[in-house]
Amino acid sequence: MILIADGGSTKCDWILLNDRGEVESRTRTKGLNPAVFKPESLKARLEENDELKEMIPKVSRVDFYGAGCGTPTPAKNLTDILQDFFEEAEINVDEDMVAAALATTTEPGIVCILGTGSNSCFFDGKNVHMEIESLGYVLMDEASGNYFGKRLIRDYYYKFMGDHMSREFEKRYDLDADTIKRNVYKEDNPNTYLASFAEFIFTSEERNGYFYKLIYEGIEKFIERRVMCFKQAQGVPIHFIGSIAFFSEDIIRDVAKRYHLDIGNVIRRPIDGLIDHYKNNVLKVK
Question: Burial of 52 by CB count in 10 Å (0-12 exposed, 13-18 middle, 19+ buried)?
Fold first, then answer.
């Protein structure tokens, strides 16, 4: 059986498919980004999931698509860890952009990820092409959960939020300066920590002017830097995947109008689209 995984920094979805393309079982682990987490953390996150352990004897092949797997060293590190865990299985590790493209479309288009992190590629119908290499959550990641989390914290401390929003923010989070600095500069996976603050925007009862402006500016920066860099941008659909994209779809479409862009599919999780891809193209189930 084939085990496919879609992994980010926050969580990783695993689905075991039989030869008929049917879902035998599924589970979720914590995020497995090899560019962010140390090898011992990655191993521990695999080992703590009993459902995943039960799959081991059934798995002949593992296809892992994940954040942080787009450069050789992290991808190799994760491949070795997965090989130790699934000893008898063939292991394939690829970047999350490939999964996003395969799950979204079979036609040429630009595919964008807006989740804990952000990224984009041009998909020609078979292969992904990266115009700009991502430098991760510190230097890039426009319109990601990490980006919006940092923006909220800064706005709170600079007193740009307004009194009402600041009080609501204080109710939801520990905003002590020492706590924030410890989590950002000393603890593991600061990108996931920062992204957790973005929930304030997307789980509040109303989307007020402050939230709209915040999201609009982030989406605008992303489109300017990670979509318009492709020469095909105004000639093919622009697809989006990820929770931030899913909950911001109306604003994405608002911003896109300014750039004369055609927004295609907006999907929260790519894993279900991957199932269809494997059934139709890998297993070739009739």
Answer: buried
